[in-house]
Amino acid sequence: MLRAVAGQLGGELVERAIAIEAKILATSAAIKPDRPLPSNVEFYAGVIMGSVGLPRRMFTPTFAVSRVIGWSAHALEQAAEAKIIRPSSRHSGPELAPVPIERGTSVADRGNPQAGILVDGATRSSTSRAI
């Protein structure tokens, strides 16, 4: 729907976005032909906001406001039904092994080879690992 609106607006930004989307979708289809992955709504929402002259600094607040409205509607619906509504899903991939977590690391640190290096250049000792 937003792609059609962007198309109606036209212009260089829209033409560039359509060309980029086509390349990305073709690459994605070549890599994972059995798993189509269409562009998300933010792709064309950003193009439309740029096309109508909304300042870039307002893009994120505009996205956030629309998200808050949706989350609020969900919360009201759940409260009215006295039921938490969660999407159902089932993991169909390989069995996942637990990942040991080292004390003093954040989720962002995990898998980061630099995470074990402290500010002064020293490294964490192996005795600091959680058991």
Walk me through the structure.
Helix content is 47%, strand content 0%. The protein is built from four helices and no strands. 4% of the residues are buried. It has a domain of 80 residues. The C terminus is likely disordered. With 131 residues, it is an all-alpha fold.
List keywords for this structure.
131 residues; mainly alpha; 4 helices; 47% helix; disordered C terminus
How would you briefly describe this protein structure?
The protein is 47% helix and 0% strand. The protein has 131 residues and is an all-alpha fold.
Which helices and strands appear, and what pairs or packs with what?
Layout: H1 2-9, H2 12-31, H3 41-51, H4 59-81
Helix pairs in contact: 1-3
Q: What share of residues is helical?
A: 40-55%
Total strands: 0
Strand content: under 5%
Number of helices: 4
| Pattern of helices and strands | HHHH
Mean pLDDT: 80
Whole-angstrom Rg: 22 Å
